[in-house]
Amino acid sequence: MTRASIELGDVTPHNIKQLKKLNTVVFPVSYNDKFYVDVLEAGELAKLAYYNDIVVGAVCCRIDTSENQRRLYIMTLGCLSPYRRLGIGTVMFQHILNYVEKDGNFDSIFLHVQVNNESAIEFYKKFGFEIVETKEHYYRRIEPADAHVLQKTLRKTDPEASQPTSVQCNGQTEKRDKKA
Ligand SMILES: CC(C)(COP(=O)(O)OP(=O)(O)OC[C@H]1O[C@@H](n2cnc3c(N)ncnc32)[C@H](O)[C@@H]1OP(=O)(O)O)[C@@H](O)C(=O)NCCC(=O)NCCS
């Protein structure tokens, strides 16, 4: 028996309807036309996941520059239920992690999840995410309406990182390498 293959592919006008169908099945929230227009422009931040050449998952992200930070926001990352626990979510997340690490200039990756979405919370905790906030009544038409904000803090690869910098430490100023 040959091993199953998991591959990622671009979202294009040709396959965008597959992405819409998949998101409709996987997520309780529906996404508007603007979401899909933006996804077509998202490049490496939107991918379909293929399991033995069949579309079974997708990830869609955008760059968020609110709150004086540059963060990657995961809008959707999901997989059809019969294909879960096969590593497909991991392949999609790893792709996003590679993207932010290569870029080197993101503060964090974050997303919202319904407070009862235990599988997603376990999945993201495995990759170093933490619940940093819980927003009441975040969702309008679904129950529970509350959302956790899950966040993974990243280390920026600062071009000046090799320059020594002064940091305040226990009331004293000391010299330290930013990378330390
Ligand atoms: C969350 C989700 C994307 C995970 O996808 P997946 O392909 O099943 O994930 P993986 O097979 O790569 O799992 C990686 C690890 O995450 C953890 N994990 C995933 N699902 C889990 C579950 N139901 N319970 C406990 N741990 C889980 C496990 O540690 C797993 O490793 P293991 O299978 O070796 O134990 C999937 O459950 C899903 O599509 N859910 C619906 C959509 C959603 O809620 N997305 C999150 C918000 S964007």
Automatic annotation (TrEMBL):
Disordered: annotated segments: 155-180
Molecular-function GO terms, alphabetical: protein N-terminal-methionine acetyltransferase activity
Compositionally skewed regions (Polar residues) per UniProt: 160-172
Pfam families: Acetyltransf_1 (PF00583)
GO biological process assignments: mitotic sister chromatid cohesion
Chief location: cytoplasm
Keyword field contains Chaperone: no
Catalytic activity: N-terminal L-methionyl-L-threonyl-[protein] + acetyl-CoA = N-terminal N(alpha)-acetyl-L-methionyl-L-threonyl-[protein] + CoA + H(+); N-terminal L-methionyl-L-tyrosyl-[protein] + acetyl-CoA = N-terminal N(alpha)-acetyl-L-methionyl-L-tyrosyl-[protein] + CoA + H(+); N-terminal L-methionyl-L-alanyl-[protein] + acetyl-CoA = N-terminal N(alpha)-acetyl-L-methionyl-L-alanyl-[protein] + CoA + H(+); N-terminal L-methionyl-L-phenylalanyl-[protein] + acetyl-CoA = N-terminal N(alpha)-acetyl-L-methionyl-L-phenylalanyl-[protein] + CoA + H(+)
EC number: 2.3.1.258
Subcellular location: Cytoplasm
Highest taxon above the source species: Eukaryota
Keyword terms, alphabetized: Acyltransferase, Cytoplasm, Transferase
Domain N-acetyltransferase: 6-155
One Gene Ontology term, aspect cellular component: NatA complex
PANTHER family per the UniProt record, alphabetical: N-ALPHA-ACETYLTRANSFERASE, N-ALPHA-ACETYLTRANSFERASE 50
Record protein name field: N-terminal methionine N(alpha)-acetyltransferase NatE
